[in-house]
What does this fold into?
Amino acid sequence: MDFELSEAHKMLAESVYDFMLREIDPIAEQVDREDRLPDWVWKKLGQLGWMGVTVTEEYGGSGMDYLAQCICLEQMSRICPALSLSCHAHSNLCCDNLYRNGNEQQRRRYLPPLCSGEKLGALALTEPNAGSDAVGIQMRARREGRHYLLSGIKTFITNGPVAGAMVLYAKTEPEKGAKGITAFIVEPGLEGTFTARHLEKMGVRGSPTGELIFDEYRVPEENILGALNQGVSVMMGGLDMERVAGTGWTLGMGERALELSLKYARERVQFGQPIGQFQLIQEKLADMYIGMESAKLLMYRAATMAQTADRGGKGSEINKLAAAALLLAGQVSTQAVLHAVQIHGGYSYMLDYPVNRLLRDVKLGEIGAGTSEMRKIIIAREMLRG
It folds into this structure.
């Protein structure tokens, strides 16, 4: 068993981290304060090949694997979780979904501008009354000739207010329940009413989150992603990949918390010695290290399995492993940030210290892509199936 990353994966990690340290770290506090990422960042990331990591070069992507996607998001999140989250929604939830489920015409129309950073992508699934209960969505898509008219509300949609294309789920035959859901590719500028409202968040500020309201919004039938009334298969496969990639996004924050804590423990002197010499501080640092390394290994395994499962392999095993990876990452990263806050003491409560941002950002790792409670249910359900 080889636990070492390949040279290509190591080079990717170094390249992404160096870029984030050089270009994004100087403005990270401003991004959080103003709740806005600079406009130039998307095309720059597109030029570097990080906007369509798992999309093949034929459609403008980098043609890398899910492990590369995890690593990319992990390194971004060490410096700016907001940028990493928007890239996650764009590259994984939108682009990868389109690539895996789209037909040739859809791929050629939508993927090149998404991979170049010309357009930003999103996934529109969550609704005011349908969060963890994803198949309980209420948005309707009523057929009229060769179009479908969308009506309903989506909420908590990352990149929603600025997305140039999104994967959206609606019920085309509500009476069929989960078997009446269809996935659509939706873009702004079509006939009908579409409004987006920016939502203010506690953390991950800078990554735009919105409430999207559709009223008789006309989408052509050729924008059906996958097949009519087969949206659940698109949805569930996408959720597995979302959880795998989301593990990288979550872990980056825990790693940053450990880095900052080590630095502070070496430099902060109390009672005539660095606080890193105190055993209770050492205990926190050790716990943080153990958690990060354990979750990272689980992420590597889940990402590797996702690559084969996507080609028709593992079935319920990837459901279980993806949920486990994200569950553990959320738990250990949240605890790592709490330890970092305690180690930094009163300074951690000051808004200009990065551990403060991490504390507000990291909690989403236990909520998004299914709460920690839902992840445990998924794991237990798959185990009981045997």
In short: The two ends are 25 Å apart (CA to CA). The chain has three domains: 7-119, 123-225, 231-385. The CA atoms of residues 1 and 13 lie 22 Å apart. The first strand starts at residue 121 and ends at 124.
